Amino acid sequence: TLKMASDSPESLMTLCTDYCLRNLEGTLCYLLDNETLRLHPDIFLPSEICDKLVNEYVELVKTDSIFEPHESFFTLFSDPRSTRLARIHLREQIVQDQDLEAIRKQDLVELYLTNCEKLTAKSLQTLVSFSHTLISLSLFGCCNIFYEEENPGGCEDDCLVNPTRQVLVKDFTFEGFSRLRFLNLGRLIEGVNVETLLRPLASLAALDLSGIQLNDVGFLTQWKDSLVSLVLYNMDLSEEHIQVIAQLRKLRHLDISRDHLSSYYKFKLTRRVLNLFVENLVNLTSLDISGHTMLENCTIPSMEEKMGQTSIEPAKSSIAPFRGLKRPLQFLGLFETSLCRLMHIPAYKVSGDKNEEQVLNAIEAYTEHRPEITSRAINLLFDIARIERCSQLLRALQLVITALKCHKDDKNIQVTGSAALFYLTNSEYRMEQSVKLRRQVIQVVLNGMESYQEVTVQRNCCLTLCNFSIPEELEFQYRRVNELLLNILNQSRQDESIQRIAVHLCNALVCQVDNDHKEAVGKMGFVMTMLKLIQKKLADKTCDQVMEFSWSALWNITDETPDNCEMFLNYSGMKLFLECLKEFPEKQELHRNMLGLLGNVAEVKELRPQLMTSQFISVFSNLLESKADGIEVSYNACGVLSHIMFDGPEAWGICEPHREEVVKRMWAAIQSWDINSRRNINYRSFEPILRLLPQGISPVSQHWATWALYNLVSVYPDKYCPLLIKEGGIPLLKDMIKMASARQETKEMAR
Q: In sequence order, what are the residues at sequence separation of 6 or more whose Cβ sits closer than 8 angstroms to the Cβ of residue 276?
């Protein structure tokens, strides 16, 4: 079912929402005075659509670098007569006081504000306008929402330095929030009196006080008949806390977990505390005690434990206090505790570090609000994916993608997540992944590359991209991925390994793509970037993979793309060619790549005059005798000269070497090649070769072209026979056989 779910197309609703948000002006809105978005007057949208527009907008701003946020977006929902909002989830820097203010007339039922650090006490006042309808509210991580700016009365010198001071608001309470049942105050700022704040709430069902230090929680008992969920993550507990919790008999979900790395905790968990929970909280279906140190041994002796297969029956529990449970728990959080490694754990879902299932449960449970725990869980998943085989691949991938999207600016998650993605997308898992899923991976990888100049993230992201079929799978983000790679290669201080992978990717991206793609990448500065890399390697007297890949990339990007060929010449490409030839006379692969590129330049009639110098022609002529890389270097040198000869004797503007002498050397070279040579070359089109057939001005060029075609169609008939027919090669060959000027051996080969 997971496979099918990941493969199914997006719903029409999702596609329309996405389209409208990317084209607000052309769909729902018009621009007032060229700057303010306004809804068309005849548009009326129900909450199902408006909620989705707002929540998708937040997601796009957060995860899609190309998407432009609109200053006046939230004002589109200011009038409940045309747009209705009910349930919205806002995150991080995207939302400011004026945005909430804009929607204050809406009857919100659910409002999640997560890590909205730009919200101040002005937004507390706006919350009051939702008080009569709000059922669910989260202010998790909104660390400034209880601060207001105070203007000092008398303007001292200090006034110039700091005109506004942040002052804690002490008098706000949830008075009047008569329907509020679910409240998350996680990571609330110190100094706010939680008891006073909450006292007016009549019947709370769920309360999250993550990361808040409260010495006295006795006030919680006022909701002992209604509270079903309580989260006290990272609160340092005491005996008093435990006694209060034991009185909340309606609890179904209790989370007293902690991050064992964050600070010193005096509290230690005991068998008695767990017994107390089991006896008093009879409705408990979910308990999280992750990160706790057990003061005493709560486990059943191992002899007794070993009996039979693993069981989730409470009676067989390896954790003694849980033998008192009436039924197995739905969820038990044991991450970073020794208990998760026991054999019989009475829960359907356990978070821990024992195996893949437990680790995935941990990532799933903690991603949204606990990145510090999630990054360690993803690190464990990374080890599983690297050393063993992942059995729940799709789930693992989805969870890592979600974590990377959710915590785009968290360095630890970006490092561990990008490393895990590399192993989760490699070839052994390829068959199980849908196009949609693989595209999601590419998106988060590119997000990571954009947000982080950090070496490890960049390297992991580049390596992960190497797991994809290039260019096909990256085509949908073609421009963006090229910009990011060129950006990496243009940095002044460079990590060798990243440079090598990035050049390899650049080369693969411009291989076998349409000419308009190549032209676009050329305009981004691709040619210049590769030449700079070559220049740097030359200065270091190093001919490594980066040098070879850079020339190969230039060979690919100039293929049938005259603009890029011209750029190569304008940026002193020929000077670098000669210097590389001189510095590295034995490097066969390098020579082949360089001459392949010059073959592309020579195909452009307007640029050929720039190759017509004694120095260049002598170099090309001498390379005709090269045995480097089989026939490739000799073949490419002959190709360059064939195009130059095709311009006729009058274009030969040099005294040395003589044209006839070069022609003679070309004939000798072609005759020395084995006609059955396997080739290290890839033609997308025969057009540049075919144009050398119907002419009598240079029989040797005609012969080189015929030899090239004969070799390719006889050694690789399946690939090249259809291409020759498709591009009209047969009639051209037939006509050439009738030409008086063609040499007999050329006609034989053509026949």
A: 242, 246
Long-range CB contacts (within 8 A, 24+) of 653-656: 653/609, 653/612, 654/612, 654/613, 654/614, 654/617, 655/614, 656/614, 656/618
DSSP 135-186: -EEE-TT-TTTTEEEE--SS--THHHH-S-EEEE--S---TT-TT--EEE-T
Are the C-beta atoms of 201 and 224 separated by less than 8 Å? no
Query: What distances in angstroms separate CA 442 from CA 5, 478, 483, 507, 686, one per listed residue?
Result: 19, 11, 15, 18, 34
Q: Facing residues of 208 across strands?
A: 184, 231
Q: Which amino acid is at 311?
A: S
Within 8 A by CB and 6+ apart from 543, the residues are 537, 580, 583, 584, 587, 590
Provide Rg for the chain, Cα atoms.
Answer: 35
Domains and CATH numbers, the chain: 29-149+180-187 (no CATH), 469-611 (1.25.10.10), 618-750 (no CATH)
Residue 296: pLDDT over 80? no
Answer whether 273's CB lies under 8 Å from 246's CB: no
Distance CA 291, CA 210 (A): 14
Among 188, 193, 178, CA closest to 208: 188
Q: What is the pLDDT of residue 1?
A: 37
Q: What secondary structure does DSSP assign to 75-101, as a single string?
A: GGGS-TTTB---EEEEEGGG--HHHHH
Secondary structure class of 269 (helix, strand, coil)? strand
Residue type, 693: L
How buried is 751 (Cβ within 10 angstroms: 0-12 exposed, 13-18 middle, 19+ buried)? exposed
Whole-number Cα distances in Å, 358 to 117, 190, 655: 33, 34, 79
% of the chain exceeding 90 in pLDDT: 77
Cα 283 versus chain centre, distance? 42
What's the chain's length in residues? 751
Distance CA 366, CA 375 (A): 10
- Separation between Cα atoms, residue 149 and residue 165, nearest integer Å: 5
Average pLDDT in the 460-473 region?
A: 93
Q: Give the pLDDT band of residue 305 (cuts 50, 70, 90).
A: low
Q: What is the mean pLDDT of residues 23-46?
A: 91
Q: What are the structure tokens assigned to 111, written together?
A: 């409002």
Going by the DSSP 8-state scheme, the letter that residue 491 receives in this structure is -
Q: What is the pLDDT of residue 157?
A: 52
What per-residue string of b and e applies to 500-531 under the rule 16 or more CB within 10 Å gives b?
bbbbbbbbbbbbebebebbeebbeebbbbbbb
Burial (CB count <10 Å: 0-12, 13-18, 19+), residue 427: exposed
* pTM, two decimal places: 0.87
Distances (CA, A) of 144 to 119, 141, 192, 560, 641: 6, 9, 12, 58, 72
Question: Please, are residues 513 and 554 in contact by the beta-carbon 8 Å criterion?
Answer: no
Q: How far apart are CA 460 and CA 443, in angstroms?
A: 14
pLDDT digits (tens, 9 = 90+) for 611-625: 999 999 999 999 999
